[in-house]
Design brief:
Layout lengths: L5 E4 L5 E4 L6 E3 L26 H10 L3 E4 L23 E3 L4 E3 L5 H11 L2 E6 L6 H12 L5 H8 L10 E4 L14 H18 L4 E4 L12 H10 L5 E8 L6 H5 L1 H23 L6 E9 L4 H10 L15 H16 L4 E6 L9 E3 L5 E3 L3 H10 L3 E3 L4 E2 L1 E2 L7 E2 L1 E8 L4 E8 L6 E6 L6 E9 L18 E2 L4 E4 L2 E6 L3 E9 L5
Parallel strand pairs: 1-21, 3-4, 3-12, 4-7, 7-8, 8-9, 9-10, 10-11, 11-12
Antiparallel strand pairs: 1-16, 2-15, 5-6, 13-14, 15-19, 17-18, 19-20, 20-26, 21-25, 22-23, 22-26, 24-25
This protein binds alpha-L-arabinofuranose.
Alpha-L-arabinofuranose binds next to loops.
Length: 510
């Protein structure tokens, strides 16, 4: 059998793009226990004066989440924002149609804006283009961003919020191609509505950035014609098109499961081509950017959640979508992060969906602590060390085939150069399940750079999980697996492992 190998060449001149830090964004939806008993639980011992859990805030700050999408997701298509503001005692309880729960409206637009400040995150707001339209979207924008002297800005001030929130990024609805969406539309119907809503919103605040809905996933029958039609209607007035994808290991085939980041790569390439086709057709100057604002592994909790929604509807904050992640899920999340970085010239925002309790890296016990799922770690590492300039790596790797994919690289990797800190970080996943593979990195383009750290996430059991009491999937130091000489770094990547190899320029070297 041919020897397995992986090689990359790193040079400061091989630049993909400066990474927009917003690709490390996340998402909080009014869904399950994301908000209630997730970020907000006034009776919890760690709660602050506003009822927000400090233990959760600490973990969010540890990751460094630059932007958080809110309030949905499917939830937004039946969201009455006016119910979520003003005196809490006067806010109505609402039937929430997407998840068949009861929304108590204890946390709304202003509370969430305050949470974002505490978390150090920017807020990405979605408007309801399901049951509502231009008017409600404009009123919400006026409420949030207009300083004062108008009906809705003065309403905000009367609610005790003097300064506008100045929310920059706005999503024009959510997954409007999906028949499950309340107020689902055809591509043309949605494209027209999105365009008119965008135009009106820009009249109120010309500084906002707008995200139009792409397909819910590549399996939709309307994909990718949906994107072409929507963009033909709305290209001139929007800045980003959204992409969503979730993967699962439904047939318990780990090799095939880990190959799914290749599908994400293909998805991104298709959407770039579609955007550029419409750009050419319209003779437009503007380049459409991509917002991958929902991505993750999601499948573990499906039947449990379906059962709750069907048989025990209308609860407040029921346990829904509480996927318990294992080690192989963390590997795929790492691979997906690498894929996003490889496209950082066009993917300018991305949201790991979601952040707390609902398909999330952070979980909470109602009567106990907040804790880290396996997927917490690759997300943390990428957000912490993946800021700077993404580099082309001229990657070569031995390959394998899986049930659904051919020519899958054994090692998938990328690199980010932080010029200011004089740090170079290689992210690499060995997706071979049997063999360690040596990654050879030519770093002659970075003279004076020395190994600073090698973090590895590995485990004998790909199904190993973390829990509130036990963190069994934890990053370890693996510096001893590296040899650097003559500008060639050789790193042993353990079979099935996520690796963060950090180099730093030695002080005093040229
Ligand atoms: O993130 C969970 C759900 O997945 C979102 O509400 C929806 O947009 C997507 O289908």
């Amino acid at each position: 059998m041919a020897k397995k190998f992986a090689r990359i060449t790193l040079d400061p001149d091989f630049q993909i793009s400066a990474v927009d830090n917003r690709i490390y964004g996340s998402f909080i939806e009014h869904l399950g226990r994301a908000v209630y008993t997730g970020i907000y639980q006034p009776e919890h011992p760690s709660a602050d004066e506003e009822g927000f859990r400090r233990d959760v805030l600490d973990l969010v700050r540890e990751i460094g989440v630059p932007i958080v999408r809110y309030p949905g997701g499917n939830f937004v298509s039946n969201f009455y924002w006016e119910d979520s503001v003003g005196p809490v005692a006067e806010r109505p309880r609402r039937l929430e149609l997407a998840w068949r729960s009861t929304e108590p409206n204890l946390v709304g637009v202003n509370e969430f804006a305050s949470w974002c400040k505490k978390a150090g995150s920017e807020m990405m707001m979605a408007v309801n283009l399901g049951t509502r339209g231009i008017e409600a979207a404009c009123n919400l924008l006026e409420y949030c961003n207009h300083p004062s002297g108008s009906k809705y800005s003065d309403l905000r001030i009367s609610h005790g919020v003097k300064n506008p929130h100045n929310i920059k990024v706005w999503c024009l609805g959510n997954e409007m191609d999906g028949p499950w969406q309340t107020g689902h539309k055809t591509a043309w119907e949605y494209g027209r509505l999105a365009d008119e809503t965008a135009k009106a919103m820009r009249q109120i605040d010309p500084e906002i950035q707008l995200v139009v809905c792409g397909s819910s996933n590549t399996g939709m029958a309307t994909y990718p014609q949906w994107e072409a039609t929507v963009l033909e209607e709305a290209y001139d007035h929007v800045d980003y098109i959204s992409l969503h994808t979730y993967y699962g290991n439904r047939f318990n085939d780990t090799a095939n499961f880990l190959a799914q980041s290749d599908d994400m790569d293909r998805f991104i390439k298709t959407i770039i081509s579609t955007c550029d086709f419409v750009k050419a057709k319209k003779r437009a100057k503007k380049e459409m950017m991509l917002s991958f604002d929902e991505w993750n592994v999601w499948f573990h909790s499906n039947s449990q959640s379906d059962d709750t929604m069907q048989n025990r509807p209308w609860a407040v904050a029921p346990s829904l979508l509480e996927d318990r992640y294992n080690f192989e899920d963390a590997l795929l999340v790492g691979l997906m992060l690498i894929t996003l970085l490889k496209h950082s010239d066009r993917v300018r925002m991305a949201c790991l969906a979601q952040l707390v309790n609902v398909i999330a890296p952070i979980m909470t016990e109602k009567d106990g602590p907040a804790w880290k799922q396996t997927i917490f770690y690759p997300y943390l590492h990428a957000s912490k060390y993946g800021r700077g300039i993404a580099l082309h790596t001229a990657q070569r790797s031995s390959r394998h085939d899986t049930m659904d994919f051919t020519g899958v690289t054994d090692v998938e990797s990328t690199a980010v150069w932080n010029q200011e800190q004089e740090e170079l970080t290689i992210f690499a996943v060995n997706r071979d399940l049997e063999e360690d593979i040596v990654l050879e990195s030519d770093v002659k383009g970075f003279p004076g750079y020395r190994l600073a750290e090698h973090l590895v996430l590995e485990h004998d059991d790909v199904k190993a999980e973390n829990g509130p009491e036990r963190q069994v999937v934890l990053p370890q130091n693996a510096e001893s697996r590296n040899e650097l000489s003559g500008g060639l770094l050789k790193t042993r990547l353990a079979k099935a492992s996520w690796n963060v190899i950090r180099l730093k320029k030695e002080k005093g070297t040229l």
